[in-house]
Amino acid sequence: MINVDDALLMSYVDGELPPEQRTEVEAAIAHSDELSAKVALLRASCLPYRAAYERQAVPPVPESLTRRIEELVSVTTPRQRGSERSIRRWPMQWAAAAFVAGAICSGVLTGYLSGANPFRPGVDPWVRSVADYQVLYGRDTVANIREDKLSTEQVLADIRQRDGMPVNVPDLRQAGLKFKRVQRLNYHDRPLVQMVYLPDRGDPVALCVIEDGQGDAPVRSQQVGEMKTVTWRANRLAYVLLAKDTSVDLQKMAQGIASGKTSQLYGRLPEEDSRSS
User: Fold this and answer.
1) Spatial CB neighbours of 115, under 8 Å, sequence gap ≥ 6
2) Which end of the chain is more exposed for a tag (fewer CB within 10 A), N or C?
3) Residue 91 and residue 82: Cα distance in Å, rounded?
C-alpha cells in the first residue's frame, strides 16, 4: 500500500504525478475519508495566481524594489549581476510580483500600490487591501474553476469550527452570477473569507467577510481604486461585495444579502434548516 503523505497529496492536486502513481493515490483516497477531506481542503486553497498575473496588468514594480530584491536573492558579484540582469529580467518580475501579492494579502503595501492613504477616513484598511487584491482577478482567472460541493462544505465547516464565523454562501444566480469557490485567506493574522462568483460576461465578483467588533452598519457604496465596493456590518462580521464591472448591480445584491432575503447555497446550520421546513 502506498504511503500517502501531505506532500504527495499536494503533487496529486497540482497534477504533477505520473499516471501509475496518480492511480494509486486515487485508490487510497477512495478508501479514506481523511484523505478525501484533505484533498478537498487542498483544492480549496489553491488558486491559479500565475494565470491571474499573466492575464492582468500588474502594477509596475518600482526600480528601487527590483534592485532590492536582486540584492536579496543574488549571490553573484556586482560585475556578474550587471551582465546577468537581462537574463534574469523575467524571473525578477515574477519575484517582485510574488512579493507584492504577499504584501497585499497582509495589508502592508496597500497604500503604496494604490497611491492613496489606506487609512484615510471612510475606507477601512481591510477593504482597500481586498480591493487591491481582487483587482488582479480577471475572468480567465476563475473561468475554468468548477464548483466543488464537497470542498465548499468542508471549507465552510472549517471556518465555523476553527474561526467561529457563521459564514454562508449566498445564492446569486438570480442576479446572473455563478458561484465558483470559497477560500479562507488571512489579513493581519485574522481570517478573511473570500467567495468568488462569475457573471455571464465581465470580470469576477467577490464577497469577502471578516470579523469586526464594531457595531452594525448599513449598506454603503464606495469606489475604491478600480473596484466598485459595497460594505456593511452585521452580527460582528464586516462584509464587502466588490467588482470592476460597473454593469453589475452590487447595491441591490448587497441589500438582499444584508436583509436576509437572498437564499443560501451553502452554510445553513441544521437548526436553521429545521426552522425553515
Assistant:
1) none
2) C
3) 15
Phi–psi pair at 134, nearest 5 degrees: -70, -25
Please report the sign of the dihedral spanned by the C-alpha atoms of residue 214, residue 218, residue 223, residue 226: positive
Angle between helices 89-106 and 125-134 (to 10 degrees): 150
Domain residue ranges in the chain = 6-46, 145-276
Supply the mean pLDDT for the chain.
Answer: 77
Query: How far is Cα 77 from Cα 50, in angstroms, rounded to an integer?
Result: 30
Q: In the prediction, which pLDDT does 60 show?
A: 60
Using alpha carbons, select from 263, 267, 44 the residue that is nearest to residue 168. 267
Q: Is 275 exposed, middle or buried (0-12, 13-18, 19+ CB in 10 A)?
A: exposed
Task: Identify the CATH number of the domain defined by range 145-276.
Answer: 3.30.200.100
Full-model pTM? 0.60
DSSP 222: E
C-alpha cell at 266: 451553502
Identity of the residue numbered 177: L
Question: Residue 266 forms beta bridges with which residues?
Answer: 169
